[in-house]
Specification:
By secondary structure, the chain is mainly α. Helix content is 57%, strand content 5%. A two-stranded antiparallel sheet has the order 1-2. The chain has a two-stranded antiparallel sheet with strand order 3-4. A hairpin with a 5-residue loop joins strand 1 and strand 2. The model has no long low-confidence stretch (mean pLDDT 91).
Length: 189
Amino acid sequence: MKIYTKTGDAGTSSLYSGKRISKTDVRLHAYGTVDELNAHLGYVRDTAPAAAAPHQALLLQIQTDLFALGSHLANDRADFVSKLPALPAAQIAALEDSIDQMDAGLEPMRHFVLPGGHAWVSQLHITRTVCRRAERFCVEAQETVAQDPAALPVPPDVVRYLNRLSDWLFVLSRWYAKELGALETPWIP
């Protein structure tokens, strides 16, 4: 398979149906940002300190889940939905369980926390903010697509998953700040 196709040289890309859309289309922003998020998660996995071993399997599962989300965001064919990987609805509960387990060992939040304290913790915060941007683009895509009665809607589990994932990344950053002995700086206005 050739890496370059030249089909995007005019500033368009195609959805699964083959329909060409502008590279500025919100759907491309949505699944492109999910792809960017996945790349950040790969970096998080690859640079994780030894203390991160308990979360490596879940990080890998999340990366797999993000490919599934991206495929649904790029799909505009109702007849193709059954051929796509299942949306990770069950993984939302797994993220919530992990959040609860980590949060049980953390000091209660009394202030917002400034990102930082350790390079890896900072990378988790960067990844969290990319996740939030992906979520915003997915919500915008939901709203935009909803205005077209013929368009295939963005599945609500996409936004739910990204919302929970960003929460998980935040709690993970706090948990590792504690594990690594990093200073957690509260924001005091």
